[in-house]
Write a structure and sequence with these properties.
Bound molecules: ligand PBG
Structural class: alpha/beta
Helix content: 25-40%
Number of helices: 11
Largest sheet: 8 strands, parallel, barrel
Shape: globular
Distance between the termini: 38 Å
Number of strands: 12
Length: about 325
């Protein structure tokens, strides 16, 4: 036998040398759940180890992550039902706790990269990402609300906006509003290929944001579709997106690779709540080695072509790296 691939696997030293993909703390954006109040820390039942935090505790969490080398955070607010209405009015109320928190985080840690979410669902009494009328989710009518929300988040100091509602014309509209108001430096990470997925379940628990009626299939993509992601990618690119995101990650590694091979924009992947919950739940039962399963799945996302990984495992990965 002339060719023996095993020679390149014979020791840790050789394996390290030929290793094609290596994870780094720099790859990650850590999603965080914000709640109003002081000294509040409530674990998300379906996401062991992940908490909804009030601003004071979130500042501590961010500080700790920064020392681990995790520099980017995607912050999602959880609002009580009393603050929700049909028009998501609270989303651009300048005194709302979410916007004030973004401002405080950016002034306390200017070096942190802060990403915000642009969609109606956390503020909507219908639990949908868009305006609901006669049981239909409206596309264009929702834009004005998203524009106000985007502007408010940019004014609060957000570095990256994440339009996550998966409807049409978002990126272009938000880009033009930002530019008109002088926020030409604020980036857009578009949820380019976001699928109508069962894997968002624990996130909707975390935010109490599940739809009150129907589902999200008229706006999020059909899990059966692959080439359709290219249509979305073309549009987001023309409209001025700075990053293209695929979501969820693990059941859609082929889509991550597709976008990577067809775009020169950095590709992001969202390793969503259900993907986190699956590994945590089986590790708790002793059915899987949780740490190895985490590392292997994160690695697969990067190997598939993701430059940026949004993951609830970010801090755990950072702690592991530090103690290696
Ligand atoms: C909605 C939004 C969702 C997530 C991020 N933004 C849920 C949904 O579309 O219902 C899910 C993230 C996760 O599951 O970790 N704007």
């Amino acid at each position: 036998m002339l060719r023996r691939p095993r020679r390149n696997r014979k020791s840790q030293g050789i394996r390290d040398m030929v290793e094609e993909t290596r994870l780094s703390v720099k790859d990650f954006i850590f999603p965080l759940f914000l709640i109003d109040g002081i000294n509040q820390k409530v674990e998300v039942a379906s996401m062991p180890g992940i908490f909804r935090l009030s601003l004071d505790l979130m500042l501590k969490e961010i500080e700790e992550c920064l020392t681990l080398g995790i520099k980017a955070f995607d912050i999602f607010p959880a609002y009580p039902e009393t603050k929700k209405d049909k028009f998501a009015t609270e989303s651009y109320n300048p005194d709302t706790f979410y916007l004030k928190a973004i401002q405080k985080i950016k002034t306390t840690f200017p070096e942190a990269v802060v990403m915000t979410d642009v969609a109606m669902d956390p503020y909507s009494s219908d639990g949908h990402d868009g305006l609901v009328h006669d049981g239909k989710i409206l596309n264009d009518e929702t834009l004005e609300i998203l524009g106000k929300m985007s502007l408010a988040q940019a004014q609060a100091g957000a570095d990256i906006l994440g339009p996550s509602d998966m409807m049409d014309g978002r990126v272009g509209y938000i880009r033009s509003i930002l530019d008109e108001h002088g926020y030409t430096d604020v980036s857009i990470m578009s949820y380019t290929a976001k699928y109508a997925s069962a894997f968002y379940g624990p996130f909707r628990d975390a935010l109490d944001s599940a739809p009150k009626m129907g589902d999200k299939k008229t706006y999020q993509m059909d899990p059966a579709n692959y080439y359709e992601a290219l249509i979305e990618a073309d549009l987001d690119t023309e409209e001025g997106a700075d990053f293209l995101m695929v979501k969820p990650a693990l059941a859609y590694l082929d889509v991550i690779r597709l976008l990577k091979d067809n775009s020169n924009l950095p590709i992001a992947a969202y390793n969503v709540s259900g993907e986190y919950a699956m590994i945590k739940a089986s590790a708790q039962r002793g059915w899987l080695d949780g740490e190895r399963a985490m590392l292997e799945s994160l690695l697969s996302i990067k190997r598939a072509g993701a430059k940026v990984i949004l993951s609830y495992f970010a801090k755990e990965f950072g702690l592991l790296e530090k103690n290696r």
